Structure formats: C-alpha cells, structure tokens
C-alpha cells in the first residue's frame, strides 16, 4: 500500500471520527431534553451520522462495486444537507414532511443518482464532473437553508448569526475540493483537498449548531424567568427591572409615564362558583384583552393573583385614563367560554403618574389605592389618583 493510499485512509478515518463526535455532542446535549428543540437536535445529530455513513461507504469502494459506493455516498452527502435544513425548519416552529415522505429530498437524490452514476460513471466516466455536481448540489441545499435560520429576520440572535456564517463557510468550501480536481487529476490531491474542506465544514457546522442551541437554551431560560406561565405576560420581577430602565432612560426628556393597576372584581366568587380551572381561563382571557389593547411599547405584568399592572411610557394622565376606561369597557363586555360555562367578568382600575425611577414604588401604591377606591365605589370603573 502506497503512502498516498495510507494517507487517504487516515483522512477518511479522521473525518469519520469527527462526525461521530458531532453525533455524540448532540446526543448528550441538554437542548435535546427541551421539547421545542428536540426535533432540531435530532435533525442536526442525524446530519452528522449521515455524513459519517457517507464517508464509511466511500471508504468501502475497495470491497463493493464502485457504482454502489458512488450512489450511496452521493445520496448520503446530499441527505445530510437536507437534515440540516430540516433542523432549521423545525427550530422555526414549522413541521416539514416526514423524512421518508419528503418528496423534495428523494426527488433530488434520485436526480443526483441518475446524473452522477448513470451518466457520468456508467456512460461517461468523469470523476471531476461527478465531484463538481455533488458538491454544488450540496452547497445549494445548504444555501437554501440560510433564510430558515432566523426566527425573526429583523432581530437575529447571536447564535443565528453564527449559524448563518457557518453555512456560508460550508457553501464556499464544499465545492472547493472539486474545483482543485479540474487542475490536478491526482486522486491523492483530491482526497487531501476533500478532507481539508470537510474538516472546515464539519468543525464550522458543529460549533455553529451548538452555539445556536445554546443561544436557544439561554433564551428559553430567560423567557421562563420573566414570563408568567399562565397568562403569558411579564412577571413582577421583569416589570420592576424594565420600568426602572425606561424611567432612567427617559429622565432627561422630563416625560411623564402612566401607571395602571387593575384587578378582576369578585375573582374569588368566580373560583368558588365555577372552579379554579375556569378562574384560570378568566385570567388568561383578561391578560389577552389587555395585551391586545395596549401599545407595543407598554409593559404589562401580572403582579400576583388577579392583579395586573401596566406601564405606559411617555403618556399623559389623560392618555393613561383613556386606556384604562377602554380596558374597563372591553372587559365588561366580554363573556368567557369556560369548561364550566360562560363567565362574565368586570375589573376595577387605578391610575397614577410617575417620572423618576425612585418614584415607581410610590406610584404603584398610589395606583393600587385608587383601584381599591374604584372597588369601594361599586367596581367596574376607573379612579384617577
């Protein structure tokens, strides 16, 4: 066995092990235990497993007919790119067709097989053309997945930016090995270039996918720490932090900010009459009405129980009172269909104003006192402090 052949075997073994390491990383990844991320993790893990299988089949061409090795290896390489693309689609919240039923995948693998094995091996044996077609095909699939990565194209996370960069690197380096073969027909040169470009692509993809999933895990934990799990609005801790920042930022402008404290009237009676499940449904509907009515810049939070607080940045007292009255009317006209029957609710509102961060707690107390005055005056109304 020549030195070149030994080197080629070593190259194949190294890239094979690198992909198995990728499989192992994703298999033990904590992201795999998060239900929303599991399909993406499994797709990325499958991608590295398929690449490893492709290189294993590639290495077995000395033991099996070359046309079989060629067909399987090319098909697996293309399939691996589709696995990555499917992982991004899953992560964005969509569900691609089951892999075995994904027509796009199998049609393109069939086309690649007909062109590479049928035309450029069995009919016209041209290694350079086969390598070019396969690498360009794979690069195209990876390129088509770039726009699937960001959940919000206007607000990309760091992990999403890293993943997109890694895909660009893969798109650039994947066809590179075939390009060199047009200038030097040496199989050893081709294999050396292939291993070099694959090592870069695999390393880039592994690091990028892990960064992406780590970013998702951080976002998931942050979301759970600041969002009320029942109603989907912010919790008290986030409200206090956000309000302090907003008030501090706008201190130079001398703008006033509105504060609304609201509470569902006779909520205990709803729980007693219809049950706690119906009470929870009422809270969810109540929070939904508020969230859909306020401005995007307003901050809505559940402080506990049936009490909610709204901060209206850069708003006058009249604007704040107008929103409170509108919410009061919207809620009083609402009938909530629950498992225990239709439930009608009303709410009382207290309004106050704040300018400085150190006034926030006092303003909340003033608005809270105004809300209790509204309850004492008959409920289902707005009191301005």
Summarize the structure.
By secondary structure, the chain is an alpha/beta fold. The chain has helices spanning 3-27, 38-59, 66-91, 103-123, 127-144, 158-173, 176-181, 187-226, 236-249, 267-274, 276-293, 317-332, 360-376; strands spanning 234-235, 257-264, 299-304, 307-312, 335-338, 341-344, 347-354, 382-384.
Q: What can you tell me about this protein's structure?
A:
The chain has 385 residues and is an alpha/beta fold. The protein has 13 helices and eight strands. It has helices at residues 3-27, 38-59, 66-91, 103-123, 127-144, 158-173, 176-181, 187-226, 236-249, 267-274, 276-293, 317-332, 360-376; strands at 234-235, 257-264, 299-304, 307-312, 335-338, 341-344, 347-354, 382-384. It has a six-stranded mixed β-sheet with strand order 1-3-4-2-7-8, with helices on both faces. It has a two-stranded antiparallel sheet with strand order 5-6. A hairpin with a 2-residue loop joins strand 5 and strand 6. The mean pLDDT is 89.
């Amino acid at each position: 066995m020549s030195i070149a052949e030994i080197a080629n075997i070593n190259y194949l073994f190294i890239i094979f092990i690198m992909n198995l390491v990728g499989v192992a990383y994703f298999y033990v990844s904590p992201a795999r235990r998060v239900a929303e991320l599991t399909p993406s993790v499994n797709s990325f893990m499958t991608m590295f497993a398929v690449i490893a299988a492709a290189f294993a089949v590639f290495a077995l061409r000395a033991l099996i007919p070359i046309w079989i090795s060629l067909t399987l290896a090319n098909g697996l390489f293309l399939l691996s790119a589709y696995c990555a693309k499917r992982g991004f689609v899953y992560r964005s919240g969509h569900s691609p067709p089951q892999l075995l039923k994904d027509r796009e995948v199998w049609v393109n693998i069939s086309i690649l097989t007909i062109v590479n094995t049928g035309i450029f091996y069995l009919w016209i044996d041209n290694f350079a053309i086969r390598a070019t077609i396969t690498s360009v095909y794979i690069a195209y699939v990876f390129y088509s997945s770039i726009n699937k990565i960001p959940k919000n194209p206007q607000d990309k996370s760091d992990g999403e930016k890293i993943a997109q960069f890694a895909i660009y690197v893969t798109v650039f380096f994947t066809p590179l090995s075939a390009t060199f073969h047009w200038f030097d027909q040496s199989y050893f040169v081709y294999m050396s270039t292939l291993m070099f470009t694959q090592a870069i692509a695999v390393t880039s993809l592994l690091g990028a996918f892990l960064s992406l999933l780590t970013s998702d895990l951080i976002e998931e934990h942050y979301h759970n720490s600041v969002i009320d799990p029942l109603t989907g609005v912010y919790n008290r801790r986030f409200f206090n932090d956000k309000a302090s920042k907003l008030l501090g930022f706008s201190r130079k402008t001398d703008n006033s900010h509105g504060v609304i404290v609201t509470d569902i009237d006779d909520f205990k009676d709803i729980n007693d009459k219809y049950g706690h499940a119906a009470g929870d449904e009422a809270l969810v509907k109540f929070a939904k009405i508020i969230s859909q009515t306020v401005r995007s810049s307003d901050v809505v939070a559940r402080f506990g129980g049936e009490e909610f607080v709204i901060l209206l940045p850069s708003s006058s007292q009249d604007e704040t009172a107008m929103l409170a009255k509108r919410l009061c009317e919207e809620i009083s006209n609402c009938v909530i269909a629950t498992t225990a029957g239709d439930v009608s609710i009303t709410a009382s509102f207290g309004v106050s104003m704040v300018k400085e961060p150190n006034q926030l707690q006092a303003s909340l107390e003033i608005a809270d006192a105004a809300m209790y005055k509204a309850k004492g005056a008959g409920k289902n109304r707005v009191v301005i402090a």
